[in-house]
């Protein structure tokens, strides 16, 4: 039998992952601590972290995991100090080699290629950051910490400057909200991370939280917080989703399989970002109750 | 290409779901909303006819009736629909099936050959049998022989274990158990949800579902084909999850490890995940 050794090229223009990673220099850092290295971070390291141009595991203690030891303590009330110190470390040592700077938790799963694709259309010299935009507490809103957020090079510079000049301070232990306030103060714009069909890419919860449309009820907080009108059901989530949160090791390996392997042979996708979506075929609303 | 091709070029596949009155709203409704529509034809087999719609077979409900249900369901299909289809899938009401991947597997097979496909188990039957929960699919010839077996008495209701008993009838009627693994040896039919096999566990006394496998079982990412056909013990929430994961979620520009139309150039699944 004749075996064809040609690599199957994706026929859509623009879908070339190797070019993307050269174009979008993405530094990732994971907010973690000593007690989560074996139980959680090991599995991030085994799955998605390697797809970043550069990855740091930020902790209070330096180890040969490897982790960076920041000048902080452990604990939920230290998260914003960790964030500040992590970004300062990155700014001091790696600013020039990267264009975008992602922060994720040790229970966040990130599809790096989809993030790179989103960022490839953005200017890192513009003061902007992306994530799951929440509305409360900060006039212009802020990005959910658990879903991960990514700062442009200019945004990172302004974050650092804010702490140098005192325009930004550690005024709260709520890391995501506090950083969002600093972004607002420093005139960094909250970007719109939804795909061209309005589906969300960053998710502060696992997929089942949004994919299942529930009967009318008093809206839970995570729907009230959303800046953009939240959707439940299959329209919630982009085909090119960037992140999910509250993802523990077993689910990390599941998501690896689901994102990078499992698919339907010959299926024509509902969403092809490089061409206009011809028809909206998500009118079916799933209601399991 | 074997068999007749359906209107849209795909394999003519009739699917039937083994179910009952109490699962229609809680489970079958969600199968109907997700994967069932991809079959050329779908039947919901029950003890009671309803306008869900369900077919009412001459059986009772209960775990001990499952093989009677199976026999009656295949007899019904044989009597009414044999000529319009080439392949006949049975699934449970907690099985999720990726129909396109099943069609792709079957497109390379001959429905006039006595063969059936599924997750091959080794025990109890000399040539093995196919796991019921993972779903199994009979060729037209296999269905004919199953029916004939009951006509002549070569096959009987000798056990309530539907999958094992059907497997015994297949053996008796000289229907071959097909190999449903993909070209890289990864399984396509799964009697459990994905997490059961995808996570490699520490060395331990092997659980039954690994003992039963006819082909050497694999744990870790090599367990499961990119073009998986089925998962079992999938309840409504997970059905919608699997819809999203199979038909939508993907990585932009990613070069897949498995492209069945070309030879896989390198084996890049050496990483064995061990979460413990």
Tell me what you see in this structure.
2 copies of one chain form a homodimer. By secondary structure, chain A is of the alpha/beta class. Chain A is built from 9 helices and 11 strands. In chain A, the strands form 3 sheets. Chain A has a 7-stranded mixed beta sheet. In chain A, helix 3 crosses helix 5 (153-165) and helix 3 packs across helix 6 (175-185). The longest helix of chain A has 16 residues, at 79-94. The termini of chain A are far apart. Chains A and B meet through helix 4 and helix 9 of A and helix 3 and helix 8 of B.
Order of helices and strands of chain A: HEHEEHEEHEEEEHHEHHEH
Q: Structural class, from secondary structure content of chain A?
A: alpha/beta
* Rg of Cα set of chain A: 19 Å
**Strand adjacency order, main sheet of chain A:** 3-2-1-4-9-6-10
Please give the number of β-strands of chain A: 11
Q: Identify the most extensive interface between protein chains.
A: A-B, 54 and 48 residues
Through-space gap between termini of chain A: 52 Å
């Amino acid at each position: 039998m004749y075996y064809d050794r040609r690599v199957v090229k994706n026929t859509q223009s623009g879908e070339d992952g190797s070019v993307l990673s050269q174009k979008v220099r993405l530094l990732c850092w994971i907010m973690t601590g000593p007690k989560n290295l074996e139980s959680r971070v090991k599995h991030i390291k085994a799955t998605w972290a390697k797809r970043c141009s550069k990855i740091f595991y930020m902790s209070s203690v330096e180890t040969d995991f490897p982790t960076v030891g920041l000048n902080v303590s452990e604990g939920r009330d230290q998260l914003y100090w960790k964030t500040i110190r992590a970004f300062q470390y990155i700014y001091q040592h790696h600013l020039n080699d990267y264009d975008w700077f992602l922060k994720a938790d040790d229970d966040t799963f990130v599809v790096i290629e989809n993030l790179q694709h989103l960022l490839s259309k953005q200017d890192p010299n513009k003061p902007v950051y992306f994530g799951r935009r929440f509305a409360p507490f900060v006039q212009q809103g802020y990005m959910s910490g658990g879903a991960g957020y990514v700062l442009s090079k200019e945004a990172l510079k302004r974050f650092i400057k804010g702490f140098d000049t005192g325009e930004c301070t550690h005024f709260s232990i709520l890391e995501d909200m506090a950083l969002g306030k600093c972004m607002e103060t420093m005139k960094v714009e909250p970007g719109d991370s939804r795909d061209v069909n309005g589906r969300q890419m960053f998710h502060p919860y696992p997929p089942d939280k949004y994919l299942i449309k529930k009967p009318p009820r008093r809206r839970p907080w995570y729907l009230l917080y959303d800046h953009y009108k939240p959707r439940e059901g299959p329209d919630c989530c982009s085909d090119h989703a960037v992140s999910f949160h509250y993802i523990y090791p077993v689910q990390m390996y599941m998501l690896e399989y689901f994102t990078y392997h499992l698919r339907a042979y010959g299926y024509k996708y509902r969403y092809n970002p490089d061409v206009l979506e011809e028809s909206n075929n998500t009118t079916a609303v799933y209601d399991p109750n």
